[in-house]
Write a sequence for this structure.
């Protein structure tokens, strides 16, 4: 079984740790990197070629959306899922505009992540 390579991009260590702990329990997932800002995530995507990036929307003052746009432009096969503390339609619209592959409100994190990795 091919393992799904994931980079977690979040500037809040507590949030990153929660995602990391959840994904570690999934047998088909391999966390290959963790980034704390947009430059870091772009560098890791370029070096590691992950299958999936879980991108915090508020990372470094909204740079999560800009990093998503750049990833989708340069590495279109990498799937990027925006994670957010708000289910506000404005954020959903921004995620669509930067061509994110999905939008996950933190309240729906566990079932949404499980669905992503169970169907890959």
């Amino acid at each position: 079984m091919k393992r799904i390579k994931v980079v977690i991009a979040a500037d809040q260590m507590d949030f990153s740790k929660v995602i990391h702990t959840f994904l570690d329990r999934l047998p088909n997932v391999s966390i290959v990197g963790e980034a704390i800002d947009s430059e870091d995530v772009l560098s890791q995507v370029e070096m590691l070629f992950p299958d999936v990036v879980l991108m915090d929307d508020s990372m470094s003052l909204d740079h999560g959306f800009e990093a998503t746009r750049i990833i989708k432009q340069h590495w279109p096969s990498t799937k990027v899922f925006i994670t957010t503390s708000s289910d506000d339609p404005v954020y959903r619209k921004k995620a669509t505009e930067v061509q994110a592959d999905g939008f996950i409100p933190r309240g729906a994190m566990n079932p949404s992540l499980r669905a992503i990795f169970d169907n890959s």
